[in-house]
Amino acid sequence: MSMRFLPILMGIVGLGLGGCLESPLLDHVQARDLEAVVSPATTGCALSFAKLKLCASLEWVHEPVDENTGEFTLRFWNPATGTEHGPYVSPTAPSTELKVKLWMPAMGHGSSPVTVTPAVDAAGSAVEGIFEATGVYFVMGGHWEIWAQIKQGTTIVDQAKVTYEAH
Amino acid sequence: MRGLRSTAWLAAFAAAGITSHAWAAPCCAGSSAAPALITGDEASLLSATISQGSVIGDAWSSGLAVFRDPGDAEVTRTLKLEGALLLSDRWQAGATLPLVQHDLHRPGAVADRAGLGDVGLSVGYEALPEWTYTEIQPRGWVFLRATLPTGRSALSSQAPGGADVTGQGLTSVGLGALLLKRWSRWDVSLTPEFHVSVADAAGARAGVGAGLGLAVGRRLGDWRVGVRTQPQWDGPRKIQGPGGPEETDRRSVWETGLDVTAPVGDDWSLTAAYTDETLLGPARNTSLSRTVALTLQTRWDR
């Protein structure tokens, strides 16, 4: 090989060495070896709805691990008249509804749709101010936001968020 | 004649090799790869590529690479049709039409969706023609490429795990160059590229990015074996988040690949390619894939 390839080879070696310094293959962890997911504190007024003057807590029924999607419970109360233990009040009016949106700010995208339904008692009647969120799934590990949104059609009336570290 | 045609074929793939790329996972920005360019004596090219990419892991914004566990499978299969047509001695135009299928078998999400990906249009100009051969001066092309958001983006995904994501949701315009030099059996190409995302479906302005591809190949008889590497960077994108305008984190990924091309008759060739995003770094804020691809290409001489 003649000398004319020397600059090219140097370029390739330089690029390669530079790239190898932070090779994901040489320096990575397995997802199963990460520490268990630690949920942020979501008790108390973890979700504060300024416009509606309401608080909400988020309690995980189970987080999205193994073969299951996650599920959590949202409880709403008026801090002027209640606490996280009740009485609970409905955040929605006949023209509004509660939605949950998962958002990954680092990448600017969401995840799978979350299903939100009113909690029901033993008789099958809706319990005021308590909602079940099911099908919670994060498309990749990292820092996520869980947004609870009160929407009237496509208009957001009020919203609040908590953060979540997904592994 | 056969030898000349083979040489033309292999020269074409010396350039085309660096343009093959893995489809990014649903979450991530698109590749900044160059379009297919005519770099030989052809009047037009038509190629069909089938590829299968598996997401091996995710690189977090902090740089931590987390490889996914066995049983956590996210596979993307792509059928991509590409064509390039010479408009004059030095001008050419091209188009890319991808069909994308996602197959997810992840904890909590099992889904299978397919759809049209992001269509690409390009024009190229041979800025450095090779009127006479020199040892040093390469042939050079500049190209302008537009990617249209014809696929479904992660922002509008409705399927579990983003299985229905087939595009970036961004109109982007890329400006780049391809410098190609051949010495006997060796060829080297360099592809710097800069792109800007114009807007997404929500109307939010996006950011800028760049890539730098380097490929080296050698002829072995009628065959060509090549290696390539292509670091890519994307700056923060201004987007409309749930709570208002916000910026994404920077993204970087480093593609490395191996290509083997063989002529199939006089007017056809076949290329097998392997692309790995886990070998070199740094990788930030992206998924990490390994992709195998098979490209069948035919050409029409001038």
Keywords:
heterodimer, A: 167 residues, mainly beta, four-stranded antiparallel beta sheet, 43% strand, B: 302 residues, two-stranded antiparallel ribbon, 1 helix, 5% helix
Task: Tell me about this structure.
The complex is a heterodimer of chains A (167) and B (302). Chain A is 9% helix and 43% strand. By secondary structure, chain A is mostly beta strands. A five-stranded antiparallel beta sheet of chain A has the order 2-3-4-8-7, with no helix packed on it. A four-stranded antiparallel beta sheet of chain A has the order 6-5-9-10, with no helix packed on it. In chain A, 31% of the residues are buried. Chain B is mainly beta. Chain B has one helix and 16 strands. Chain B has one helix at residues 2-16; strands at 42-59, 65-67, 73-86, 91-106, 109-116, 119-128, 139-148, 170-183, 186-200, 208-220, 223-234, 238-241, 244-247, 251-264, 268-276, 286-301. The radius of gyration of chain B is 19 Å and the shape is globular. The model of chain B is unreliable at 1-32 (pLDDT under 50). In chain B, 53% of the residues are buried. At the A-B interface, helix 1, strand 1, strand 5, strand 6 and strand 9 of A face strand 1, strand 2 and strand 14 of B.
Overall strand count of chain A: 10
- Runs of chain B in which pLDDT lies below 50 for 5 or more consecutive residues are 1-32
Structural class by helix and strand composition of chain B: mainly beta
Strand content of chain A: 35-45%
Return Rg of chain B in Å: 19 Å
Name the quaternary structure: heterodimer
Q: State mean pLDDT of chain B (0 to 100 scale).
A: 85
Report how far the terminal alpha carbons of chain B are from each other.
15 Å
Shape of chain A: elongated
